[in-house]
Amino acid sequence: MTKLVLEPNLFDVLRANFPKDRTATALILPNGSSISYGDLEQQSGRLANRLSNVGARAGDRVMAQVHKTPHSLALYLACLRTGVIIVPLNPAYGKTELDYFIDDAQPTLVVCDPSSPLFKKKSKNVADLVVLTLDENGEGTLFDDFSSLTSEFETSTRGGNQTAAILYTSGTTGKPKGAMITHENLSSNAITLKQSWGFTKHDVLLHALPTFHVHGLFVATNTAIMSGCQIQFLTKFDIDEVLKFLPSSTVMMGVPTFYTRLLSDDRFDKDLCSNLRLFVSGSAPLLAETFRAFHARTGHKVLERYGMTETSMITSNPLIGNRVAGSVGQPLPDITVRVVDPMGISLTADAIGAIEVSGPNVFSGYWRNPKKTVSEFCSDGFFKTGDIGLIDEKGFLHIVGRDKDMIISGGLNIYPKEVEEFIDQLSGVQETAVIGLPHPDFGEGVVAIVVRTAETCTSEFIINGCRDELANFKCPKVVVFVDQLPRNIMGKVEKAKLRKMYSKVLDC
Question: In percent, how much of the chain has pLDDT > 70?
Answer without folding.
Answer: 96
